[in-house]
Design brief:
Layout: E1 7-11, H1 35-46, E2 50-55, H2 60-71, E3 76-81, H3 104-111, E4 119-123, E5 126-127, H4 130-139, E6 149-156, E7 167-174, E8 180-191, E9 197-201, E10 204-207, E11 213-221, H5 224-240, H6 250-259, E12 264-270, E13 275-276, H7 282-296
């Protein structure tokens, strides 16, 4: 059986409102490498054959100028733009005051022309670790990811917390076979001084098992998702298209896929340490974490030579 090379799709068109700058292109490695460069490095090592960047058109020249010299000859690259007017149903237009992109599920629709075969979706500004990409690449082989079975890499909650404030996490509920039942969005999760991990909801605290798997937006899809998501996006626009901050998100697509009986979504566990830059104060911690990984030999001092 021949090995299939999946495609890596990187979501890099977000506005980074909480962070306050374009964290997707901030340097954290010894030679100014961005977080997503470590993801690409791990993906190449795991056997991915192509990377597709979803970006905003106004940043295209800067983005390509940064990435192409590093990746040329190492992996095939493509760039797609997430534009508000793309994939709207006939007769609908973008609200005059709308600036926010339509969300992560709309973003992957924009990548469809550059994707053939199974593919993996990640955020640009999350550090996922080598194990996640190895497991995603293995799942994308025949017998794993298909039109009837998608996947999500599940991170242990305790390995995704921030020391600088509460975090929002999609807490994964699974069945006995390890398939996703639901993703419950918890918007204020943190570890208390007493040690337990809780989330706040309606003014109260609820303890949550710190070993629970959570979604860090690391998905495995077959190309069949494009047709489904395209139809569901049109439904979303008809229902919520006039709301200025409404978003069409990948967890919504996952929920509709499960609820509609289209198939299962396998939760693929990893013990990798996640880190990312939700807050400005996270940046020095992320840089120190990368430095420690380089010092341990997990990554070279210069990713690209």
């Amino acid at each position: 059986m021949s090995i299939q090379k999946p495609t890596l799709v990187i979501l890099a068109a977000g506005m980074a409102s909480r962070y306050g700058s374009m964290k997707q292109v901030e340097g954290f490695g010894p030679k100014g490498e961005t977080i997503m460069e470590y993801s690409i490095y791990d993906a190449i090592k795991a056997g991915f054959g192509k990377v597709v960047f979803i970006i905003r058109e106004e940043f295209a020249d800067m983005f390509k100028g940064m990435m192409e010299p590093k990746l040329q000859g190492k992996i095939e690259t493509a760039y797609v733009f997430q534009a508000l007017e793309d994939y709207l149903p006939e007769g609908y237009s973008v609200p005059a005051d709308r600036a926010k992109p339509w969300g992560t599920a709309h973003a992957i629709l924009c990548a469809e022309p550059e994707v053939s075969g199974n593919f993996v979706v990640i955020n640009a500004d999350d550090f996922y670790g080598e194990d996640g990409f190895a497991k995603a690449a293995a799942f994308c082989q025949p017998g794993g990811c298909s039109n009837e079975q998608y996947g999500i890499i599940g991170y242990t909650l305790s390995k995704t917390l921030s020391d600088n404030g509460s975090v929002s996490r999609g807490v994964c509920q699974t069945d006995a076979e390890g398939n996703l039942v639901a993703i419950n969005e918890r918007t204020k999760i943190y570890r208390k001084a007493s040690g337990e991990v809780v989330y706040e909801d309606n003014g109260g605290e609820t303890e949550v098992d710190e070993n629970t798997p959570v979604s860090m937006n690391f998905w495995c899809f077959s190309p069949g998702v494009f047709g489904l998501a395209g139809d569901w996006f049109k439904d979303f626009i008809r229902a919520k298209g006039q709301e200025l901050k409404s978003e069409f998100l990948l967890p919504t697509v996952a929920a509709d896929f499960i609820a509609g009986g289209y198939g299962d979504i396998k939760v693929i566990p990893t013990e990798a340490q996640w880190f990312g830059v939700t807050y400005k104060e996270d940046a020095p911690i992320v840089k120190a974490s990368v430095d420690n990984l380089v010092a341990s030999g997990a990554y070279p001092a210069g990713l690209w030579g």
